[in-house]
Amino acid sequence: MLNELLLNLAHWFDRQSWSTSIHESIYLYSWIETTHVLTLMVFLGMLCVIDLRMLGAIFPNVPASTIAQRLDKPMMIGFAVMLITGFLLYYAIPVRTTQSLWFRIKVVLLIAAGVNAFLFRAKMQASSETWDLDPIPPKRIRIGAALSLALWAGVVITGRTIAYDWFDCHKQLPYFMYWVVGCVDEMAALQ
Amino acid sequence: MDLYPFFDWLDTSLLADISKAYGGVFAVVQMLHLLGISMLGGMVLVGDLRLLNIVMKDIPSEVVIENTHKWFNVALVMIIISGIFMSSAVALKLYYNTMFWAKMTSLTAGVVFVYAVRRPLLKFDHASIKPITLRMIAITSISIWFTVAASGRWIGFS
To answer: How far apart are the first and last CA of chain B?
Structure first.
């Protein structure tokens, strides 16, 4: 049901002339992709500094909350650019991307990273007064920071592997994998 | 100096055997390369934006530069090691790729700039350095590392 819905949405995007224009442009798609990858340095770079501070590996003499607050704005600017360029990349090749195993895992990891960031921020704001000046924050904060880095590493690797066709619908896959990847036509052919 | 013999050797090395045969290993190394770039870019940006008085204004710039430099070194090592592995998969193709040489040239410029100019200069008390000099260092640094990353991405398109 969800697979059909997602595929219909992808086909709807695919029929739009702007989608085709971006996909078939000589330079625009490359520039969008380059901006998406380069903004990693802004978003993930800032996040790296914040998480490393929460792990006690950088800026030991600067309060953790100061690092988080000062880098929050540039990090969110980077995230906004990544989100917009990421959507445009999806919009340019919607059907194949919708039926990409890696894209699907990436979206799940993005949601998990978002939930972790939300919980992490809430936990930090509630308790930072007690450990803000500690060079090494408490274990629960370090676990949150390590989880954040791991989830974003997962987002990066799955983002990169979207380019590989190992599990694309034209490959011979088990029925379960067709379902996971959302190969609606292939599933119907097997039934 | 013609580096063709090195690329020729790399193309048939054990590294090339692994990078060409195992797509999964290549993808993981590529992830490390991207994470290294993100970390390096983050450290460069935080340091340079501080020199430009845009972020962390209430933290002394000496503290920011000192802390970010350590992780810049870690990121640079990650990038170089993963980069050599990735290059081994398409060594001879890269040898004839103009964008690859643009990246190598800008990377060399970046490394020389960091260790021969930025680092030695910023070891002094920043209050004793002219603000315009600090700003020029920051803008030059951001420009060089942006060129490294952009030309690196463009290798895939050329």
So the answer is: 24
